[in-house]
Predict the 3D structure of the following.
Amino acid sequence: MLNLKTLHAELDSILAAELDNASLRRALEELRGRAKGSFSLVSYRFARDLLERNDVGLRSFVLGVVEPYALDARGKRVHRWGANEADLNWILRFAEEQNEDDLFRSFFYAVHERDAPKKATKRIAAALATGDASTLGRELERLRYIVRFDDSLAIQLYESFPSLARNAILSGLPFRRYGDRGKSELLPRLLERVRHDEDFFFALYRRTAGEIRWKRDVARLLNESLPAELSIELEKHHLSPAPTSVGTVLAEVLEKRGTDGLPYVRKKLGVHRYGLGDGGFKRLQEAVEAVGDDALSAQLLRSHGRPAEYNAAVLDALNRGNRTRLLLLAGTGGEMNFPGLSFARVPPLEDKVALEMLSRDPELLRGPFRRNLFAGYRETYPRLVKAAIEREDHDLIDFLASRFITRAHTFGGGKAQVSAELISREFESLLERDASLFACRAARVLGQVPPYSIWNYDRLLTTNRLARLLYEFSPAAFLSSEAALVDLLEAPEIHAQRVAFRALSLNDKRSGAFAAQHRRLLGAALLRPLHRRTRAIAFDAIRRGASDRAAAEFFLRQAREAAYLPSRRYPMEELIHLIGDILMMHPELRLEDEKPRVFRERVSRMAR
């Protein structure tokens, strides 16, 4: 990635070369590839000039990189594109004329800054005054998410063009004032005006109604709604986002209507707990228990209970021997799911509670409550680890090892090293007694490490004794168990696979046989993304397995396919070296253009 000074210098040379349109785009594309994300910060240098050339290729390139925010060669922000405010306004007009709505929005903010919502509102009012639906529709789409409607403008828009108004008003609602906690209403006159439009009314109600009005409406529904209609009506009125008093309102629903309100409470279960505030949690918990819904009570504890409250409930169920209650309390709580990213709340078990569960019902600890053993900076389970070692509970020891093995001695993680060292000594003695059993159990530990859980591998090795033992100090031991190697090659975490690569790359007669036998698992390293150092170890393992004729043929086919991968970071020199080594071991696998050629006749003539 280029620094800004170099980027500006290279851009100057390209713009000064007076290239034709096609050559100019190729040069800019090449510079963009090397500059990465910082290229858009210099787009103010060329955006207007390239767009004025009216070339399709240059236009598509500029629209993909242009940004209203910029940095100069010294890394300082270029406010309003420096002295080129005329260019900034020109780009804005260009985006408006070409109906490039996303580009228009970003530059509209850059031109008007804090006044952007007011300016957008004035433009909408002017378009509405024309009475032209097409003009108004274009303005609404162009200024979506910028305009902020007030009551009068929203009512005027709805009465004139209701079909255009619905989505535009919902996307242009004003923001609530900081600190009012949703008590004030937004656009109250509009809400009363659209009461006859049921779908739009409730969509607007959920976004604009105040907390006071919502509580009043909920109380009315609790007194008037039939059992079959109650949950449907309550859901229609449920505010989004939910106010801070949602917990007390849900508790009131259950207190007054009992089981009739359970479908609504299950779907909208939520409690706002800030600092030491309760948020209505205890009241809601008592209401749920009074209704007798054990599953909802457990879900409430998992999703909104504090660790002390959750552990108290688990300990109480243990003392009463209520296994059904314990099974309901196990597992995750609330979730947040996004495309490619998800979060789940997992309340951790305390050391004393986990120890009590181990003595009374160890199967629960090994199974349903296993994910609640969050070994880290909050809980380090020293007594649980000692008890598991004394009881020789290998399943529990191996799981705890898979969690402590990822904890480095940073940000309070030093407490976890006490437990990690206890487990490490257990595995060290096992390695001395039985290498095959050590390999099986170590592979089971590494196979349970979640992917992407190691952020700084070098620091981890310097601070975690267990990580050094299993990841680095005993690769030869894994050759004593074929099942262990297979488990490592199929492990979800890359550092566990790296242990298998190291073992299979050792100068041992067993490594070549294992690598050849499991060539399909090993050959995947040729085509998947890997760190350069890890890929080098995998290449060495493949060389060991390529001594077998069938395995060499398979590895060679995979390597030739890898040579066409588009990745720029792929070590092509090492890959070609690997292909050459395989062909040297098995010359019969050479293709026609890979065979060496000796031009004897030509050499003899030159000799004369």
Q: What stands out?
A: The CA atoms of residues 246 and 271 lie 6 Å apart.
